[in-house]
Amino acid sequence: MAIIQTSDVFTPAELPKVTDVDRSKLTHEIAQLMKRKSYISLTGGSKLGKTTFLKSYLAAQPATDWSAYLAGQSLANGAADLWLKLAQALEIPTSKETGLANGDKTTWGVFARLSLKWVTGGAAGGVKADREENETRTTGEKFTIDPEHAVTEALKVIRANDRRVIIAIDDFHFVQDHSKRHDIVVALRPLTDAGCKAFFLSTVLGGDQDPAFNNTNTGGRRKSVEVLAWELDELKEIATKGFKELNLWADDALITDLASESFGSPQIMQQLCLDLCENENGIYEREAEDQQLQVNAPADRDAFFRSLDDDEAIDWLKIFSAAYVPRRERGRYDYPSSPPVKLDGYQLILYAIHEMGSPTQVAVADVKRHVGDKLKFDTKRLNKIALEQKSINLGEIAARDMTAALTDLPAEEGDAFDEADEGAEEDFAYAELVARAAIPQPVLEVKGKKADAVISILDPLFSYMLKWHPDVIVDSGRK
């Protein structure tokens, strides 16, 4: 009898097989763009399924076509890394010592795998490569050509055989230097001119405005598509598909509750379904012949949702709650939560967002209004906390690498807090923060000037932790 593991059905950390949901509208849009554009950018928040979608899309392509999936983290040196990674994907031998590729095309694995042949002087432009191949055989020297030439030659041969070529770069924003990103886009131009398609995945707002595409002559050939948070019905389909595979059933109200707490993220929905089956109902595996069972709701709903945590998201919550080391003691205010707590300005911002339901986007003016109502401060007294500048500083902190964010800014000796205006202190902190090299991170972003600033949370897991773990905010402030 076939045994089905619950963890093989609900897979928060892997590409889903059973619970994959077809986002037909997005699939149709990409299919149309593939006919019209050479460069396609997928932007949007973290953990919304961009990577899963693209991997599924690539996997669905005919086996006779060729595609490469590259991680942005592996392309820090720009075009040089791009050519080496593409050479590896094409199974072109390269030398670690010299960085050169083997000029003998009989060693290029992609041709055998796709059952392709090249023609000297043909449409693929094989004259130069064939000459170098002959030289390779004559001299015995294996590695004689640069990877750029080898990759370009191989891909042109594939295209000359009427095969489709797709190059996908995930986390493109992790190529920190925009000039390096620019070099990658320019390097891909000859390939797109030959009919290859390039995908770029980015988890930062405004990824469609990436300066890497400036002065690359890609205008009219590029389209940006925002991958939106999943709809409630799409998230519910994950549960219904998975429960059906396990011969289980659950009330629609329970499934809706799980989907409502997933912040539009299929990853969170997968995890909640898995935890519900295993931790709350003791269902770790099922046999195909088992009688259908009902999946019961958690005995303690709040405890169940609090049980899901994520180390990285929790670390960011601690970082934002502590912020930087101030030059003077930071003001702390009696906040009427249950039980009452003392919070500084940074904690006030985070706790207010928590009480507002942890929205993925919120105006700083609304956060300030919420804090003022809770503290019962008039406008003059509320302005002294400098919540607008503190919000902007949170955005600067979020733009750091996590290890850099954990490093305290140098503190100066200062006076104890006496409820003076905190604005000057926050302006100083802002100048210190922007002086450091920023690395875009998919956690939180603040756009706009003080009065019009808007906080956008890019990581659904961070939104989830902000909602269900407010104790971290209280415990992580500067003492």
From TrEMBL:
InterPro entries cross-referenced by the UniProt entry? P-loop_NTPase (IPR027417)
Organism superkingdom? Bacteria
UniProt-listed SUPFAM superfamilies: P-loop containing nucleoside triphosphate hydrolases
Under Gene3D superfamilies, the record lists: P-loop containing nucleotide triphosphate hydrolases (3.40.50.300)
Protein name as it appears in the record: AAA+ ATPase domain-containing protein
